[in-house]
Amino acid sequence: MKKTGAQIFVESLVAEGVDTIFCYPGGATLYITDALSDCDIRQIVVRHEQGAVHASDGYARASGKVGVSLVTSGPGATNTVTGIATAYMDSIPIVIFSCQVNTALIGNDAFQEADIVGITRPCTKHNYLVKDVKDLARIIKEAFHIARSGRPGPVLVDIPKDVSASLTEFKYPDKIHIRSYQPTYFGHPGQIQRAMRQIASSKRPVLFTGGGIILSGASNELTKFAEALSIPVTNTLMGLGGFPGNHQLFLGMLGMHGTYAANMAITESDLVIAMGARFDDRATGKIDEFAPHAKVIHVDIDPTSISKNIKVDIPIVGDTKNVLHKMLDILAEDKESFKGFQASIHEWLKKITKWKKDFPLTYQKNGGLKPQYVIERIYELTKGKAIITTEVGQNQMWTAQFYKFLKPRTMLTSGGLGTMGFGFPAAIGAQTAFPRSLVIDIAGDGSIQMNIQELATAVQHRLPVKVVILNNGYLGMVRQWQEFFYEKRYTWTCLPHPDFVKVAEAYGAAGYRIDKEKDVDKVLKEAFRNNQPTFIDVHVDPMECVYPMVPAGASLKEMLLV
Amino acid sequence: MRHIISVLVENEFGVLSRISGLFSGRGFNIESLCVAETLDPTISTMTIVTTGDDAIIEQILKQLNKLINVIKVIDFRDTDYISREMVLVKVNAEEKTREEILRMVEIFRGRIIDVSQKTYTIMITGDEEKLRAFLALVRPLGIKDLVRTGPVAMARGDRTIKMKEKQPKGGNEDG
């Protein structure tokens, strides 16, 4: 029996095991919208297409499955671009279906036409325009495969309206074959041996791990490996949760707002073992002075990440989990070679312990309610078991510093693109994937307003997301730079904000306000128990800054401490 | 340093803009770009002339390989190769210079493919040096118009561009 493109779309999604999509309708989606009306796929209709993509992204980050969104042509499609670029920078597997005007109208400047395939080419892993309904099932299969394999990333599929209406025979392909796409999963054995020899002869090694550990599900292997050799671990922002944040070998995050211990360890290290990290400028500081005494081993599934920003001595292209497995095997077989290493590592650990003790993350406790305190309390109250999303700016950095992430996929943050407005819809996506988990977006009063309309989505679908707004009345991170580097001229950064409690209530959500330290625990506990979507408006010290800070362009050892 | 790279790609719409977009988006240079179908009509070859130091060329090769539609990337840096380019050049051909132009075209094994009262249009193929030498010779006569194809390249001897597909490798010694 022949089926329409719209029916094929729905059945293909079912075949891919998709249980949820984030969507927004329009003229061009109508056949598909109609076909979705009688299927089991949960459909979360958002209030802005950017929210749909961030939500599918949050769903993917929290669950490890491919996130799916569906939007209409023209403005519906262009509204997804920020969401797509966010997922692209952080290698998140999502598939975005945009609908398109009829094939006959493409190129004619038709109503609600945009060349979304052209627009998203540089910010997708791959994208497709479906020109013939006969190609639809194969393209959907390929899109999911490309999104989740290799270095994951967003894939966009543009479906013209007439294609969704056309009829063809349907069979979902069970095999996939893309001759030009074969990611490398297993690291070169010779290179891995070389890396292990290098580690054995190192005196001051550091594991420097990023989002790749989380994407490949390698946290257990990483922890085993670090423990087996007592090698200290620092994470990039994207790597948080990949190694237990309360582990004694954990140094904290490195980089611009990294810990003293992490930045000093990198600076004095003689061997940086980078895994699933891409040497982003926020992590490395001044690149010429990054780890000046160290050899570098770099394990990454994406060859373009290797030797892009920094010269690598031992490159290993492969999936971090497989490579770590192989390294653990070598270690088990050849303990002898590491005897000298075990003897010398203690000197290094002693030095690191002293750094941690002398310069821990801290903040001054005078003045108003401190945002860092609020995050510490959130950690204590949730025992580190919540799924945390963040917006971008000070709220994000304080979360990275003061919440100890114990497990992978519990820290969902826009690391690469730094997208304000990400955290709230991402929390909605995570809550959809894990309805019973406590999902908390740690926001600022600036960021939350970038996708605040999604509160209607959360209310409609009964997604009890908690938003803790660290309200300082400023775009705090930019204000902080103005304080340090632009003679305290707070141009554009002091913005009036609405009463967030009233906003929450107007949407049918719950709203709380906290002004004093003594109320923090009581109100947070109550808010976390509330089964509604909830805003918690926390009025914090407006002038608080994120420390330590490595000024842009400076080397990691040049930190401004409190 | 100047480099010639051949890229085998799926012969599909949009592939050219993926490649050119990669170069512009990442700030790589393209001196010339030449695209056409291969023996296998589902595959096209792009010959790209680019410049950059070793690190940049390495990134260019890796980034090209990363594109889903790219089947194979060949860097001619370390191989013995031949390359040829074609130029169409329209030069002033007055009564007194016509003979001389004909002689030069013959010496350079070019051909005159169009003639008018005042001009000759010359087609000439060769490697870069030959074309440069020829153009230097005709320049004093007055070049009215000039079009170049950009070079295409091929390995010398028996070696061919194998249509081998990308294989899942056990990593790569040089990353």
Q: What does the model show?
A:
The complex is a heterodimer of chains A (562) and B (175). Chain A contains 22 helices and 20 strands. Chain A is of the alpha/beta class and 562 residues long. Chain A has a six-stranded parallel sheet, sandwiched between helices. The mean pLDDT of chain A is 96. Chain B has 175 residues and is α+β, with helices and mostly antiparallel strands. In chain B, the strands form two sheets. In chain B, strands 5, 6, 7, 8 and 9 form a five-stranded antiparallel sheet that branches. Chain B starts with a strand and ends in a 20-residue tail after the last strand. Mean pLDDT of chain B is 90; it is low at 169-175. The A-B interface holds A 117-118, 121-122, 125-126, 129, 146, 178-191, 298, 302-304, 306-308, 312, 315-318 and B 9-10, 14, 17-18, 21-22, 25, 55, 58-59, 62-63, 65-66, 68-71, 165-175.
Largest interface: A-B, 34 and 30 residues
**Number of discrete helical segments of chain A:** 22
H/E series of chain B: EHEEHEEHEEHEE
- Count of helical stretches of chain B: 4
Terminal residue distance of chain B: 21 Å
The side-by-side strand order for the widest beta sheet of chain A comes to: 3-2-4-5-7-6
How many strand segments of chain A? Answer: 20
Number of strands of chain B: 9
Query: What multimeric state do the chains show?
Result: heterodimer
* Shape descriptor of chain A: globular
Low-confidence stretches of chain B: 169-175
- Helical content class of chain B: 25-40%
Report the principal-axis shape of chain B: elongated
How many angstroms does the end-to-end distance of chain A come to? Answer: 70 Å
Summing up helix and strand content along with how strands pair, one would put the structural category of chain A as alpha/beta
Portion in strands of chain B: 35-45%
- Alpha-carbon Rg of chain A, integer: 24 Å
Major β-sheet of chain A, in short? Answer: 6 strands, parallel
Major sheet characteristics of chain B: 5 strands, antiparallel
If you compute it from the alpha carbons, what radius of gyration of chain B comes out, rounded to the nearest whole angstrom?
A: 19 Å
**Roughly how much helix do the residues of chain A carry, as a percent range?**
25-40%
